Amino acid sequence: MDTNSASLFSKKTQAVFYNFKQEPVQRMLDFDYLCNRETPSVAALVTPGSSNGLQKLFFGTKEIFIPIYGSLDDACKAQPQADVMINFASMRSAYDSTMAALRVPTIRTIAIIAEGVPELQERKLAAEAIKCGKIIIGPATVGGIQAGAFKIGDTAGMADNIIACKLYRPGSVGFVSKSGGLSNEMYNILSQKTDGLFEGIAIGGDVFPGSTFLDHVLRFERIPEVKMIVILGELGGRSELDIAAAMKEGKVTKPLVAWVTGTCASIFPTEVQFGHAGAKSGSDTESAAAKNAALREAGALVPPSFEGLPAIIEATYKELVAKGVIVPAPEVPAPVVPVNFASAFGEGRVRRATGITSSICDDRGEEPTYNGCQISDVVASDMGIGDVIGLLWFKRRLPKYATKFIEMVIILCADHGPCVSGAHNTIVASRAGKDVVSSVCSGLLTIGPRFGGAIDDAARYFKAAKDAGQAPHEFVESMKKKGLRISGIGHRIKSADNLDKRVVLMKEYAKAHFPSTAYLDYALEVEKYTLKKAANLVLNVDGCIGTLFCDLMASCASFSAEEMTEIVEMGCLNGLFLLARTIGLIGHALDQKRMRQPLYRHPWDDVMYCD
Predict the structure, then answer these.
(1) For residue 256, what is the enclosing H or E element?
(2) Which of 9, 80, 228, 479 could form a disulfide with 150 if both were Cys (CB 3.0 to 4.6 A apart)?
(3) 276, 416, 491, 588: which is the annotated catalytic residue?
């Protein structure tokens, strides 16, 4: 922007937004889209004390990144083209952050949004702004706007109001007020009675604003696009009287329409404090009636009441059009406003297919549910982890013997020493300094057909053979002809004379509690045949779990034949080993860290080096 220009903003103005708030920033970007800006009006976001980063926001229908900085200095150095600082700091830090901005050479205009800034600090800021040749809007302000070019934060409200007030394109009126709310009302009136707003400023309602009515009126006087000026004052203070004096001195020559609110104060027997801190008359000369009279006497166009303000604005505008001072531009069509999906969806204006479907739980109520069962009921009814697995994995309540068996599987498979591949990988990763999650994942990735991941295949093979009526020896020989290993049969160190205690415990439990063990019995017949071939071809843990789970599903009458097949095919049973072994792998990772074990390097004498 031309630093000699009286205009504060243009279509190329960019701002540093201090103390990032998403909604006002997004509204600024939406305004940019409505105005057909080529570049976003927000160049940088400052979140004091944070590390630098990027914030994703919408610019029209596209998403863009706006850089985030941890300090105002960093933001201004990185974005020297930004000459406006929008200060959303609280009343406690507004003074320091604004004072810092006044000393940044590239910052030309500062808007202070906070209310409650101490009056002494306001006076110091105003004095420093004059000294630095800069403009402060506020404190206690919504900001300002140049129609079709740039707006500060929440000024003029949301997109529907901006379109209704035709603020997406410039008009011919310069407007200044203390109130953001009344500014919105006036923007609407100006859009109906004139060709609309060129620039509007709400200086804020405090006693000592950073800039005055007169500061902005004199700017409007020097802006060629502003053909008429409208001010909306209020009782208290001398700002409007300063304008009257300037008019008498010939400093303001453009038509000026004015109204000072608060004329009703005279009916009260004592002084009345209106909404703003500065809205009270300390003397008769500061009353609304006295200031309206002074402005009228100085040549301002002042209606007899607020109700007459729209008519006098319209008459003034039409006179300027008749004289050729204002040449109304052809009306441009209102742009189509992108709507946030969440808002449109909430209003029932759009629909979309869901991205995820879930049938096992629901977290939308006061407490989560597991397959329709509230977690408070899970706890109150003394359910165990087996019951929760039944609800979340199989979507049903399982009988107690079944949930007890699931818990037994988890206990028995939680760990099998540090030498198996999963534990070994976990130990190596933990000793390499990896965190617990990474170390455990390293171990879990070894689970597969050769280590712990054969439960599904064991269940699949044994179930298919028994259901087809194959004799045990026929099943073994058919697998041999296909070149397939029988999952669930065989162990590296266990044998017929040294049975795996885990398998023994599960068989004993099933024989004592399961209504039927038909699939286990079939697997044991297969074991008898395979033991004739080699002593280590025993039914192993995977085979025992797989066949007993088939017995569990068949005997508890909760699963159809189709469901049994589906559960085996989808990998559900391997999940039992995965869940169980995670407990042990976490233990190994923590154990290595507890003992502060160094980086593991495999000894070279345990490697066969080949040509």
Answers:
(1) strand 256-261
(2) 9
(3) 276
Helices (H) and strands (E) in the chain, counts: 23, 16
Please report the pLDDT score of residue 243 as a whole number: 98
In this predicted model, what pLDDT tens digit does every residue of 326-381 receive, in sequence order?
999 999 888 787 788 888 888 888 888 888 999 999 999 999 999 999 999 999 99
List all residues 6 or more positions away from 611 whose beta carbon is below 8 Å from its beta carbon: none
Rounded percentage of the chain residues whose pLDDT exceeds 90: 85
Name the 3-class secondary structure at 341. helix
Reduced to 3 states, what is the DSSP secondary structure of residue 301? strand
Whole-angstrom Cα distance, residue 34 to residue 435?
49
Q: Is the dihedral of CA 477, 482, 486, 490 positive or negative?
A: positive
The two three-digit tokens of residue 280, written as one number: 């009270």
Instruction: Say whether 276 is catalytic.
Output: yes
Here the contacts of 309-313 (C-beta below 8 Å, separation 24 or greater) are 309/189, 309/257, 309/259, 310/189, 310/192, 310/193, 311/193, 312/257, 313/189, 313/190, 313/193, 313/194, 313/230, 313/257
In this predicted model, what pLDDT tens digit does every residue of 271-321 receive, in sequence order? 565 555 554 555 678 889 999 999 999 999 999 999 999 999 999 999 999
Residue 198 contacts residue 226 (beta carbons within 8 Å): yes
Report the pLDDT value the prediction gives residue 167, as an integer from 0 to 100: 97
Q: Is 257 helix (H, G, I), strand (E, B) or coil?
A: strand
Give the whole-angstrom CA distance, residue 527 versus residue 212: 96
Cα-Cα-Cα-Cα dihedral sign, residues 141, 146, 150, 154? positive
